[in-house]
Amino acid sequence: MNDQHFMKIALEEARKAKEIGEVPIGAVIVLNDVVVGVAHNLRETEQRSIAHAEILAIDQACKEVDSWRLEDATLYVTLEPCPMCAGAIVLSRIKRVVYGASDPKGGCAGTLMNLLQEERFNHQVEVTKGIEEQECSGMLSSFFRELREKKKKEKNT
């Protein structure tokens, strides 16, 4: 299995989020080539600020492996992790993060700042960026374009 294969699974999760009106972000956690956690954003659906795809996938993976330590796992996510998710990734000891689209407004895996490789923490994470970047960023761009158009129509009605 390769990075593109698992990012495609994350993209499927992102599509599920989009179908229910969520920001289309999907995450997959893989351990020894086996998916142990998979999720998409549910923040709007559940009205919980922590219901990001990465947090939900980490929670599921911890339950699956019966440990809070995900030391040899790789997390695939369609958008660069935010500060909250980056913190959860570090604290769960995930070995590697692979993301699709960079987030210039909140990315904490190297764009805005790099919490995943902050040397002052007791754990650093390997980062690979830009996997399936066009599809990941395209899905997000079209989602927000459609949202703006919908709000504009509602305002003019």
From TrEMBL:
InterPro entries per the record? APOBEC/CMP_deaminase_Zn-bd, CMP_dCMP_dom, Cytidine_deaminase-like, MafB19-deam, tRNA_aden_deaminase
Q: What class of enzyme is it?
A: hydrolase
Residues of the active site are E54
Domain CMP/dCMP-type deaminase stretches: 1-119
Q: Which reaction does it catalyse?
A: adenosine(34) in tRNA + H2O + H(+) = inosine(34) in tRNA + NH4(+)
- Swiss-Prot/TrEMBL cofactor(s): Zn(2+)
Reported EC number(s) for this entry are 3.5.4.33
Per the annotation, how and in what number is the cofactor bound?
A: Binds 1 zinc ion per subunit.
* Residues at which Zn(2+) binds: H52, C82, C85
Alphabetized GO MF terms = tRNA-specific adenosine-34 deaminase activity
Q: Which branch of life, at top level?
A: Bacteria
Extract the Gene3D superfamilies matched here.
Cytidine Deaminase, domain 2
**Keywords in alphabetical order:** Hydrolase, Metal-binding, tRNA processing, Zinc
- Family stated for the protein in its record: Belongs to the cytidine and deoxycytidylate deaminase family. ADAT2 subfamily.
Give the quaternary structure: Homodimer.
- What's this chain's function? Catalyzes the deamination of adenosine to inosine at the wobble position 34 of tRNA(Arg2).
Task: Supply the name of the protein.
Answer: tRNA-specific adenosine deaminase
